[in-house]
Amino acid sequence: MTAARAPGPSTPGRTEQDDRSGPNRTRGVSSSEAAVLGRIEAFRRRRPRLKDDVVTLAHGAGGKASAALLDAVFLEGLGRPEGPLRDAAVLDLAPGERLAFTTDSFVVSPRRFPGGSVGHLAVHGTVNDLAVMGAVPRWLSLAVVIEEGLSVAELKEIVADVAEAADGAGVAVVTGDTKVVGAGAADGIYLTTAGVGTVAPGVDLAAESVRPGDVVLLSGTMGDHGIAVMLARGDLDLEVELCSDTAPVTPLVRALLEAAPGTRWCRDPTRGGVATVCNELARDRQLAVVLDEAALPVRPAVAGACELLGLDPLYVANEGKVLAVVPPEEADAALAAVRAEPGGAEAALIGEIRAEPEGVVVLRTAFGSTRIVDMLVGDPLPRIC
Amino acid sequence: MRFVDEYRDPAAARALVRRIATLSNGKRFAFMEVCGGHTHTIYRHGIEHLLPDGVELVHGPGCPVCVIPMGRIDDAIAVAEQPGVLFTTFGDMMRVPGSSGSLLDAKARGADVRFVYSPLDALRLAVDNPGREVVFFAVGFETTAPSTAVTLRRAKAEGVSNFSVFCNHVTIVPPIKAILDSPDLRLDGFLGPGHVSTVIGQRPYRFVAEQYGKPLVTAGFEPLDILQAVEMLLVQCAAGRADVENQYTRCVVEEGNPRALAIMAEVFALRPHFEWRGLGFISQSALRLADAYADFDAERRFAVPGVRVADPKACQCGEVLKGVIKPWQCKVFGTACTPETPIGTCMVSSEGACAAYYNFGRLHREAALSVGARA
Q1: Residue A31 confidence class, pLDDT cut points 50, 70, 90
Q2: B27 touches chain A (CB under 8 A)
Q3: Which of B40, B49, B121 sits opposite A369 (nearest CB)?
Q4: Reported confidence tier of residue A161, pLDDT bands at 50, 70, 90
Q5: Is residue A379 part of a domain?
Q6: A269 and A299 both lie in a single domain
């Protein structure tokens, strides 16, 4: 894995390298001129320096400014490869290993919120998509679209968050790209990561294996990320102590699979929340997912904010949770194992799979009745009164 | 959650349901909940499946989104698309279809439409964007009208000249009267609107009992509130009484909120008539800005088409709003008209009877009971 860390973002270094041998021009030139040319040559060999405070279109033009940005921000933040940059990362695999491959783009506003930033999300979002497939996340790419005018200081912070999150998740950022667009053509910065993970032999998590009688496990509280971000936007005068749950779920899935090898299927309930993931399962398998409202873990702050805003925590985004379907005989072991992991203390068995009613998610309310939990339509728009 | 969980206690609910079953004694009763907030609670908490078969809740016209006619949406879009306008609205209104799309569609075409939680947020946008004309799309019953009034009073005091209100506030009593006068009335009583009553109090409903002989119980919005109000209605029916009673005593007082009423009287004036979606024109049923606030009236500041648009032929929102049919009895329910592509307003807001039924209630009684019984 460390070997794979070597190759990094590509290009401008190469032209410099070509120049590095230096033109053999000293013959016939006066010694003082030779000294000046020598100084220039030495100066050109130095690493490019980034002196700007904000990102400009020049940083995206592929010239010296691009090289400076690449060096001072991305290589500095993510780690510098040994030797020259190459055009692509070469990944070493063990024989027989299968790969999981996914990609995701991140456009969150605000870019920094309690508990994390878009940099953390860009890593965790992609890592978690791999993890819930039963894969071990290994390598990431990082492509960044920057709006002209973004401060270099903020860009460095975001890249530092990417590095921190990647370290925490045990993945290496092995390739990347940067583009700059004009002011107004993007909203600050967009990050896209692609991730590659390896899947151990015998691991095959698939919705097809879910059957009636199975139990639904959720690894922790619902809606922390969505509500934290919504409140961080600042247009609601609510003061709530709440952090996003952004985190890698790899350890949770690993613990789950060890304790419950019969685990059928996992998902990370991000945008659209637990309700959406359950609806997709119910629709794809034409089974009923029956959830118990009383068993759903929700922080009081999230429940309160949702109650005020007319939202349902079932539909609010999470960034560090796993929803798993496990066979009934392994459910207790699965729950105990997940609860023993950091970030899994509030895990709960939240429902079960039934044959009927086909294709729907039904909630047994804490109140003692039942209702449908449908797919979300559009954005969750707050109710009027 | 404090002050919420107490009103969702399953044991108390079971006791109330038993009382309701005893009181209804197998006979048929139809009660209308006037308020969309009640409709939402009823479906969200599955109350229909808890009630005895014969006790039916009919969903009334009290969802402010549902009663806005298409022509007014067209007017709103026309204002929103004028150069320099920053159009603000409650989130629910963004998806309501006009004759050529919704405010969300107008936003996609380039209009600056933003949703706000309060008219004061819209006023703040006006102060922060002095170069823009900020318009607030005011909708709602007496519940939201006072906050619009407070905002207008502040705008006037602070001399915010780039702020105006497109006023669509409506009043609750005229549509209740229209329903009581409707020839196909088949109701045994009303669950009175809780939020509206915090403002207008209980007195305006007396005619329901005195002139029409129907009981009315003002109810809160938690599931136990609804069940208790149903029980209170059944007690009246059993005794052959028709009174105006108050279940929501923790919020509603007899005389309402005099300060809110005073500021509404200062800022608003009654319109001679106003069109209601599906119900047609109802006289003295809506508010416009009073002459003293004419400068803040978006209808005077901007050219609005003001064209009346007939409801789509297939749409039966009117019959749903009057409680003549159930949402699922509408010809286009769940097929041509869904929350994704609503034809009628009732399918838009989660307080709309159709959307609430579609989102939460689409479950046969038998299926609900079988799932409710734990494996």
Answers
A1: confident
A2: no
A3: B49
A4: very high
A5: no
A6: yes
CA distance B370 to chain A (A): 9
Is a pLDDT exceeding 80 seen at residue A381? no
Average pLDDT over every residue of B210-226: 96
Band (A378; pLDDT cuts 50, 70, 90): low
Question: In total, how many domains does chain B have?
Answer: 1
CA B202 to each of CA B33, B149, B193, B208, B244: distance values in angstroms, whole numbers, following the listed order: 16, 22, 10, 11, 7
Q: Flag whether B237 is in a domain.
A: no
Beta carbons of A370 and B92 less than 8 Å apart: no
- A298 to A175, A216, A218, A295, A316: CA distances (angstroms): 38, 16, 11, 9, 11
- Tens digit of pLDDT for each residue in A251-276? 999 999 999 999 999 999 998 999 99
Please check whether residue A255 is in contact with residue A326, taking contact to mean a CB–CB distance below 8 angstroms. Answer: no
| Alpha helix positions (H), chain A | 2-5, 13-20, 31-45, 64-69, 76-78, 118-131, 152-169, 224-232, 250-259, 273-285, 300-309, 331-339
**Residue in B187, B189, B91 with CA at minimum distance from that of residue B140:** B91
Residue B145, domain extent:
70-172+256-301
| B contacts of A362 (beta carbons < 8 Å) | 363, 367-368, 371
Residue of A nearest to B366 (CA): A357
- Closest-CA residue of B relative to A379 is B91
Do A191 and A212 fall into the same domain?
no
pLDDT band of A369, cuts 50, 70, 90? confident
Range B237-251 burial, b when 16+ CB lie within 10 A, else e: beeeebebbbbbeee
The whole-number pLDDT of residue A218 equals 98
* Residue B145 is assigned to a structural domain of this protein: yes
Of A201, A236, A252, the last residue of a domain is: A201
pLDDT digits (tens, 9 = 90+) for B303-333: 898 888 888 888 888 888 777 888 888 999 9
**H helix or E strand, kind and range, residue B21:** helix B10-24
Nearest to B51 by CA among B15, B20, B10, B7: B20
List B residues 34-93 in contact with A (Cβ-Cβ < 8 A): 37, 40, 43-47, 49-50, 64-65, 90-93
Nearest to A372 among B50, B223, B359 (CB): B359
Residue A11's pLDDT is 40
Residues A53, A162 within the same domain: yes
Q: Alpha-carbon distance B166 to B298, whole Å?
A: 5
Residue located via tokens 């209980």: B202
- pLDDT tens-digit map of A199-250: 988 889 999 999 999 999 999 999 999 999 988 887 676 777 899 999 999 9
Q: Do A384 and B223 touch (CB under 8 A)?
A: no
- Six token digits for residue B134: 């900020």
Residues of B in contact with A309 (CB under 8 A): 117
State the nearest Cα–Cα gap between A309 and chain B, in angstroms. Answer: 9
Looking at beta carbons, which residues of chain B come within 8 Å of A357? 363-364, 367, 371
In whole angstroms, what is the distance from residue A31 CA to residue B161 CA?
74
For residue A363, give its domain range.
207-373
Same domain, A190 and A327: no
